[in-house]
Amino acid sequence: MRQHPEHYSSLAKFGSGLVSTTQERWGAGVYFNPYVIQNGVQIKYGVTSIDNLCTDLSSWNNLYLAGRLQKPVKILRDHPRVRLANQANLISAVRTALLLLPPQFTENELYSTIAGLSYLGDPRMALPTESPSKVTDIVTHNMTSFRKLYGPLLATLPNVDFTATTPDNADPDANAKLSQDMDPTKRANMGRSLRRTRYTEADSDEDKLSDDEFEAKLADEIADDHVKESSPELTPEEADFKRIVDAAKLEISRKKLGNPLMQLRLVANSPHNFFNPWGLENGPEIDERIVTASGKMLLLDRLLPALLKRGHKVLIFSQFKTQLDILHDYCTFRKLKICRIDGSVSQAERQEHIDAFNSDPDFKVFLLSTRAGGQGINLTAADTVILFDSDWNPRYISLIRSLK
């Protein structure tokens, strides 16, 4: 507002604080400046707070801001929080569109479905002033930009494939055909991982319970479930879901709360450290939730492919074995060949993993426990180290630095 006062109407006299607060509380959450000339081109840009933008990107509270960023736009002020939140927003947009599309579809149909999400139920679309081909025009005129925005995401989804050669990013007329796996279990997992929006959560009585009372309540629920587990009314899908929920309750009830700080460090890495459904026997297939449930995993999912594409060999350290299990599952999901050393690996196996990583170009990622992998190791092939969670003992950090 101070940089470009000519872009604003007489509302600018009330000050930026009042204008932004009014927009966030009672308006659309963003102040738009339309019909602005920049470098000889007429543009339209919006101004909002980072907190408000990230909230809508992460939770789809009203889908107004999130819907804007599901289309190719330029973010004038780059911020890491916005990048992470928008990564989750784009993944959710792709999943939602796939649930609305048939087994076979085209790029144009996919991007049109995504671009139309934020207009579903919008009363303005029924007005005569709105073009009926608005969504189609957005996609047709920006096909190359849509492809750059969503192409990398589509390449990582295991249930979506291009039926022909992946199109050239620079060819706006290309309209590749895609297919998706319509397996009911995979589609149900995709639906469960979407944002829960447009409802208000009621206060839970469980929030008022002490830790001991909460654990006792979990134990009672587990006992009740065991009584009912032989019910013949459950379908195979319901029985499978019930088995996973029971395992989650049991694992959480066993968690010791003697060291809350350690529990906070675990949950900051990934909530799946408290319950990992993919570690169960006959558990569900690994899906995108292994990434989207954690900010650290979202960042790693952006960083690691870029490093590997440039030919780097990467060491990833974690202090927690459960986090290494999650990283192992993630690498399997992304079809990466890895080596791994933790406290359970014998000396002979350690050397086999070290030799394979140093000599085989296909092994580009090495997962290591901070304690088990910080000494007695020669990984000369590695040129990049990622500390997924930093050990608070400086002695172990110095050992890791010695690997350089």
TrEMBL record:
Keywords: Hydrolase, Lipid biosynthesis, Lipid metabolism, Magnesium, Membrane, Mitochondrion, Mitochondrion inner membrane, Nucleotidyltransferase, Phospholipid biosynthesis, Phospholipid metabolism, Transferase. It is an enzyme of class 2 (transferase). Its main location: mitochondrion. It comes from the Eukaryota. It is found in: Mitochondrion inner membrane. InterPro entries: Helicase_C-like (IPR001650), P-loop_NTPase (IPR027417), SNF2/RAD54-like_C (IPR049730), Tam41 (IPR015222). GO terms for molecular function: hydrolase activity; phosphatidate cytidylyltransferase activity. SMART domains: HELICc. Pathway: Phospholipid metabolism; CDP-diacylglycerol biosynthesis; CDP-diacylglycerol from sn-glycerol 3-phosphate: step 3/3; Lipid metabolism. GO terms for cellular component: mitochondrial inner membrane. The keyword Cytoplasm does not apply. The keyword Secreted does not apply. Residues 165-192 are annotated as: Disordered. It is a peripheral membrane protein. One of its GO terms (biological process) is CDP-diacylglycerol biosynthetic process. Residues 299-404 form the Helicase C-terminal domain. Its cofactor is Mg(2+). Its EC number is 2.7.7.41. Belongs to the TAM41 family. This is Phosphatidate cytidylyltransferase, mitochondrial. It comes from Verticillium longisporum.
